[in-house]
Amino acid sequence: NVVDGTDSSYTVGNDINYQSDISTVSAQFSDFTSHLHGVMSYEWSVGTEPAGEDVLPFTSHGIVHKEEMNVKGDGVTSSGFAHASVQLQPNNTYYTTVRGITNAGNILLSVSDGFTVDRSPPTIRIDRLTDKTSSETYIGAGSTLYQKTPDALSAMWHYDDLESQIKRAWFSVGTYPYGSDVNAKTEVDISASLNSYFPLATVLPDITGKPNVISIWAENDAGIVGRVTSAGVIFDTTSPDQGVVKCPQYVGVLVPVNCKWTGFLDSESPIQKYIVTMGSGQGASDVYTSVVPAYFTEHSFIGVTERLKHGKVYYVTVTAVNMVDMESYAFSGPIAIDTTPPKYGRVIDLHTSYRLDVTDNSATVNFNSKVCDDEEDCDSLDATCSETLSTVSVTWQPFSDYESGIARYQIAVGTTPGGGQIRSYFDIPNDAQYYTVTDLDLMGYRTVYVSVKGENGAGLASVATSNGLHLSYLSQGLPPVSHIGINDIFRNSIGDVDFQESFDTFRGSWDVSGDPCSILKYEWQVQRIDGQIIQPWLDMGVRTSGMNDGLQMESGALYYSLLRVTNALNYTYIIRSNGVTIQQDPLIPGKVFDGDITGYDLNFQPSRTWVSANWDGFGLPSAAIAQFDVISGNPGLHVNKDILSEQTDHQKVTYYEVAVGTDRRFPKTRDNIVPFTNVGRNKSVTFYNLDLVPGSGLYYFTVKAYSASYSITTAISNGFRIGYDGSIADWTTKRRENEQNALTKIEEVKKLPVQDTIWMIDEYTSLRDDDGQNHRILSVMDTKNLYIGTLMANILELSLVQQCRDLICICALTPLAGKPRRPKSVTFKDPSYAEKAAGLDLSDLGIKYMYDGMPKENEPVKMRTCSVCRLRGTKELFKKCSSCQALLYCSRDCQKKDWNRKGDMGAHSHKIWCKKMKMYMSKTEEMRQFPFTYAQETTSEYFDMAAYKTFLEKQGVLDQGLWRRECRLHGDETKCLCSVPFGELPESEDPIFLPVESSILDEAPEKEAKLLHDWEAYYEYRGFRLDSPIAILLHWPMTLYHIIKFCYPNDHPEWWDSVDSSCFKLDLIGVEKEVEMLCLFKELGYLCPDITIDIILYGVEISKDVHNKTYEHNNVKIQIVKGPYHKRADEHRKPHLVVGLNAGLGAYQMWGQSLVKLRTDRIPAYFTDYCQYSCECARTAVEGLTFGTISDPVVNPFRNPVRKLAEENDMPWYSNGFLYRIIYPSK
Questions:
Q1: pTM score > 0.70 for this model?
Q2: Would 146 disulfide with which of 110, 323, 385, 1218, CB 3.0-4.6 Å?
Q3: Which is one GO molecular function term here (predicted)?
């Protein structure tokens, strides 16, 4: 017999069947006998089959015999042990074979029943713990369950062991894994299905808040033990400790109620949630109910104050719920509503220096008092001017609020009433009645205002502002903010004069506003240069000019004014004028010449709409001018500039006034065409937009010159006619050479840049010469009535068609105004001429001839626009700003005009914007970064509308579905939708018109939505190819997704946390084509499956037919409202979020009222725009209306991948390209 194992009690069929050792084999054998021959020796082997030797070949090594007496056959003993080291493999069965060899050479062989190597412990799986099963929740190690009743502790589990049988199992219960401090190790029965359990009430658990962990062990036949622990079960039999709730005693209308709580603790199980309610009594919820997470210790009740009634009290109840649903609650104190802000009195600026009255001690005390009780006392303390530029002091009459009291005071210093531009609002002690703001830098300011804000217990505030404190510079030995001085003037003079004719009247005017301190009085004195006082000090009060007409002044003498100024600080200073000389010599008249040739007079001017004149010689010495005649017989004038130094100062001209009239004899007819116009010191002028009559009628220029001494002289031209003078033949001869030069350069015309304008051909006049020949004169003007050129031709020698062609060539190469250029189109001013010029074709010149009934064509070339004058043309007509490379200009004059804008347009000067635009241009490459294969094409600076049309044609979507609004160039002009109002786009069976994309977008994603940060992540998530153009349409809902999921929670966590997942309310304002894209917004619902989205679209530029139209799909509900947001929003529910896409806040006045609405409601608001320039204009608009400001614009990762080209600049423009939010001012 052969038995596996070494235990002497083992028998055949009852030995080891499993072992865990993989390196040794042991066996025992017995009853090997041969009565006849006896057993001489033994060998043994190990194999994977009976009698096999593939693991250990037959060998005598490792055999140990038992001692025996009386061995049969006189051989060795019949029994013994065998042991050897071998390499075994888990999960295999091995057999031990022993053979005995007799003295006769016979073999006695026996094989064991085999054993299996088992290295793995049993697996234990817990199926149920208390009332929880493994299919409901995770009940394994590391988790925690909570129970109310101690007798609920029970468990059920099962075993798995694929190699050997489970021999025994036991469990224990402890407060830590594998512990037994609650229940000692206890063996359990194992059912035939390998299950074990212990029932309810078997174990008395720990109920002190410690976890009860069940530890289970199981041992298999190989002697290997497996073990596992359950989740910890904590028994909680008590409610959480009662906390404390703190809420404001008073709240205002439209102000959230902010409450906090502390003290809700539970030593057994944590708090799982809080139920927050508000009602008319303790524990009531008739006003508000919400559930907030356990980690919250405060909550804002938004929108509830609208439902609160004045005069009633309300309570907030906070209920803490622990993990076993046991509750405790606490109440706030009574909450009342206060709808009125505090009442306020005056704010008085105080003097910052000590004032002394040496004659009256009580007056000194009153002067330096810090508080006032009545209006009279306050008036006596009110300071008009400040003695320092570093501090301001104020006192104020106390604020009052009989309902909720004054909770705090704040103070600010600004340049406008209520403003905080210099020092923003900060808290000051509540019991303060006066305050001094220090460490200011007021240098450069004129007037500052100190504002005091009082806030009541309901959070409502009132602001009172001082009447302004003027800063004094001169009294502190500092230069004034701007020039101060006194001018010698004459009646109707402009600025200071150095000469005057009158010897009995002296005038002066003064301006000391450069030192902002208020003036108590002016005193005026007039002296002669030798010190003789002509007029003693005269009290002028606060008048800023004076006149004395009773003087006797001498010709040639100089007189000047002295002004003694006393300001509100009783500081006195004296200024003087530079004097005026009495000079009674009249101003010498000059000459006026008709025409724009300097120094020459023309008898005819060619244009009916504009005329020119020039003049010279006013105030000049007689020897400085010389008159002569030119060939035409018209007088001319030359000035000898070498002797101009002989001109006296009082003969110098200060300015000219020019007029045009029909008769120089009468004052009323000298300016009946163009009234007198101040042209400064210019010596030429051109008047435009006239309607003069050609022929024999005369027109005259009249020039008035005003000297430094305000002597006036007038000169009138000798008149001119509208038309041409002299012989028509002579005129034709002079012009012929220039015309022929232009006509031989037709090829050069085709190379000229194109101006986006229409040149209109008009018959100027028809003339008959001395030989009786008829001549036709044609002229060309543009759409701004600017004459480009004229051409006269003999009617018999040149046809109308050829004359038109010749005229266009001449005007293009040698225009009367502007650069050489060709127009985009040419037509006749009088449509009837089109019939006379039948056959006119300018296409070989690259110019389109327009006439009634001609077929429409799409724009053949890309046009650019001057940033200033809006002239349109091809890019060759323009140059960029050399610094920022952003703006385009048609001329140096336009660039200078843009750089030096003044007055109301000063804020738009390119001098201010150039550096900013250079920074905007640096974003060009960043804005081009998209993962799409077509991005390099669609973001190119050359991707114009024609290129976009080609792109859409390649994609197969041009004029299809929602793509019909994308490009204004159409394959079929009958499909043009330019005039179709938004909302009236005919419906399409397939709005996407991309088969693969349509099928994907029709179904919700199979896998759970994750946060998507950019287009690449979104395309991968939805399974779109990177060559799909669907992003062009989807950038609208994806921009909303980015705002809702990323921007809104990060920027407004308190609002996001208060959002009820059952309904997120969104207002989309200023909509246009969004009303035609409703089906795309279901994608927003797919990506936000955890919330229901309620969207209202507000728009003015939409069709009335879509008003109140609705759309629903799964968790997205949309309603369209026609009308401005500020007028229609109150008719609907209050939103959580307001969004305006491609808004242009700084470009449209309609946003003003809507911004007022947003600021009043303080709803979080986000806007997008095409470019950073538009965002900065929005900042200016918001801040200018004192509505707060905007955040710094950021690039929208879900912007449209198609660049929008702006004609007047090269800044990167993308639909929904930049994103910002409104930052409201602090309350």
A1: no
A2: 323
A3: zinc ion binding
